[in-house]
Amino acid sequence: MKKVLFYSLLLMSSFYAQAQEALTLDQAKRMALQSNRLVGIQREKVKENELKVLEAKTKNKPMFLASGTYLFNGIKKDLELPMGAFGQVGGTYLPQQNIPLFKGKHNLLLGSVAAYQPISQLGKIKVGVKAAEADVRIAETQVSKAELEVLQGVEKLYYGMLIAQKQLDEANANVQLTQAKLYDVESALLAGKTDEVYKVGLQAELANQQQKVVQIMNQMEDYAADLRNVLGVQDTTSFKLADVHVEPVSIQTLEAYQQEAKNANPDVKLANQTIEKVNYGLEAAKKDKLPNIGVVGGYTYQNVVSDLPNNNYFLGLNLSWDIYDFGKRKSQENQRLSQKKQAEEYLAYTQEDVAAKIGKAYRKITQSQRLITVANQAVTLRREEVRMKTNAREAGLKLEKDLLESKVNLAKAEQDLYSAQLAYRLAVAEINTLTGTR
Questions:
Q1: What would the pLDDT profile of 68-77 be if each residue is shown by its tens digit?
Q2: Whole-angstrom distance between the N-terminal and C-terminal Cα of the chain?
Q3: Phi, psi dihedrals of residue 18, rounded to the nearest 5°
Q4: CB neighbours of 185 closer than 8 A, spacing ≥ 6?
Q5: What is the pLDDT of residues 169-190, one digit of tens each?
Q6: Is the residue at 317 inside a domain?
Q7: In the chain, how many domains are there?
């Protein structure tokens, strides 16, 4: 039995003592934010959308187009109007001589440079820029949301491991107590003062206690694996966690948290920003009804037709208008209206959902505060009990088993207090996440 306890304690100590320094909660948070790939992807999305804004802004600038063609004409043939093609007038041929109309060439060149400046589309382009800027704000909010979720996940794993450590301490204390009871029963059995059934019962209880130790250690290994994954470290990395000193924080009223969440909660912000973007889409759909008008100008060069100038330029207006589209534009506008209604409904749903979650987290805070008060009293009394029994044991008035029972009760009380304190911290972290506070 003692070997099993020693083995479990050895496993536990080797798992946590390999690291030179304890990992603090703040260090774990920083590591997670630096290495989390999903956060990195969201940050890159911000950069991508910022570049899309730059792209959208270029659309109100003139477009310059250049084109050129070179052809080698294999068979060269001149085109002429022959003398007398229109007959004779007063004995004179019309025309009086051959008139060249087209002189064939082997090398033909065509080239042009044109510029187009949109005019009527400037309003739609401006709306497109605003929509692209809305995408940037949405991406930035998604980064904040991802970071808050990562931080909350780190806290849950960190506190979960610390609570499991306290549970392991309590379970090991129970093993020690059961072993002490078993020793007393074995001594009484040798003296013929008890029955074998009591020994078997205690052996079964000891096995159950040792099973609980193994279960808690398995849970701690799972917590550690998940934490390594969040921190972005190798699976073989070992670490121990620094203890957390839980101090009361200033708690606002429930109404204050609800009001703060309306402006700062990431999901609420995303819903509002989605409505903003949909409004831009609706405005752009309405502007699609307008004709496209722009200024066009350019320069051309040709050597194909000799009677035409080799160099020329042009300047004017270009107009295009989709007069009738069989309801396409109206359908697109109605789609934007439907998207707006969906976004508004989703905003209302999100606000209600966030309000309910804040109410739940706030209840957890108040419940944890009450538990901490009662658990503190229990720890104080259990420590006094251990002190008194220690004195009595030293005076020979109490057995070692009696002292171990009190130590087990103290370990249980300390574990309950620690769990209540960390539950309080988790509730505070949850409400901070819901209100967009780090």
A1: 999 888 877 7
A2: 48
A3: -75, -30
A4: 194, 198, 199, 202
A5: 989 989 998 998 888 888 888 8
A6: no
A7: 1
